[in-house]
Design a protein that fits this description.
Elements (H helix, E strand, L loop, with lengths): L1 H19 L3 H4 L53 E4 L9 E3 L12 E4 L12 E7 L6 E10 L5 E2 L8 E7 L6 E4 L1 E2 L5 E3 L2 E10 L7 E7 L5 E11 L18 E4 L2 H12 L16
Antiparallel strand pairs: 1-4, 2-3, 3-13, 4-12, 5-6, 5-11, 5-13, 7-8, 7-12, 8-14, 9-11, 10-11
């Protein structure tokens, strides 16, 4: 009887041990612990960009440096007029807001996209506007960039083949024109788009005002323009602007026949008066 009880107890103990089993750690105490799960990638942080309330100097002599009047071309009223070079046919200038441009949040970017342009060939377009003159000296500048016809940024040449910018003496009798030059120290690249700065200083007085003229080239693609500016060391109100330590004198030359014609076309354009809205009916 005692043997039967002992045998039964042994069998029960073996059965309990088998039911509990042996852990993997007991079998291999040196096994590494399970790997921790990989945490998810953090979301990309916001990218800060420079921005100003105004796209250019508050004493800019150009009335529309932010291209807010694009689509409402009014010669003599401050907006840029755009024409296809060699004709009186107006070019439909477009504008877009891009805080990454040199204009920042303060102004738009003008887009010069000629009809039927390809990446290799395009028709030249001339943009111009007038500004009041004075004794000067005057300081002119503008930013330019280039895209292919699909809108992708491409390198912009630093010669006159893509963009040529000039300041013209506003007097019909004066033959003087002054070409701006690329400032290589100011070139900037943002999100793959390269902007070049064209600038120049004009020491000659412009008693009859002047014209700010931009000509795009014929080698294809689209041109982006931002923050055009002309300032003077002598403001109309007689308050002098802080003098500059050095001047980058613009190259002086004689106006070309094409430039004279486009200025004449600008002057001959009649103003487009926008009709007033109908008077509101007064309530009885």
């Amino acid at each position: 009887m005692k043997l039967s009880l002992i045998t039964a107890a042994a069998v029960a103990a073996l059965t309990f041990a088998a039911g509990c089993g042996v852990s993997e750690a007991d079998k291999n105490p040196e096994a590494p612990p399970p790997a921790e799960p990989t945490p998810p990638e953090p979301p990309p942080g916001r990218k800060l960009v420079d921005g100003t309330v105004m796209s250019t100097s508050p004493v800019n002599l150009l009335a529309d440096p932010g291209f807010s009047l694009v689509g409402r071309q009014q010669p003599g009223y401050g907006s840029f007029i755009a024409l296809y070079e060699g004709s009186s046919r107006e070019f439909e200038l477009a504008a877009t807001l891009d805080s990454r441009s040199p204009a920042g949040f303060g102004g738009a970017v003008a887009l010069v996209r000629p009809d039927k342009a390809t990446d290799k060939k395009s028709q030249a377009v001339v943009l111009l506007t007038s500004f009041i003159g004075g004794k000067g000296p005057f300081h002119a500048k503008i930013w330019a960039s280039k895209s292919d016809v699909a809108g992708n940024p491409v390198d912009i040449p630093t010669d006159d083949s893509a963009v040529k910018v000039s300041v013209m003496d506003g007097s019909p009798e004066s033959p003087d024109a002054f070409d701006l030059a690329v400032d290589p120290s100011a070139t900037r690249t943002v999100d793959g788009r390269t902007w070049i700065l064209l600038r120049g200083d004009i020491a000659k007085p412009l008693a009859n005002g002047g014209f700010f003229l931009v000509r795009t080239g014929t080698k294809g693609g689209h041109i982006h323009l931002a923050a055009p500016e002309v300032t003077s060391d002598e403001l109309v109100i007689g308050q002098a602007v802080k003098s500059r330590s050095s001047l980058k004198l613009a190259e002086a030359r004689t106006k070309s026949g094409a430039e004279r014609r486009v200025i004449a076309a600008y002057r001959s354009m009649p103003p487009r008066l926008v009709p007033a809205a109908p008077k509101a009916q007064l309530a009885d």
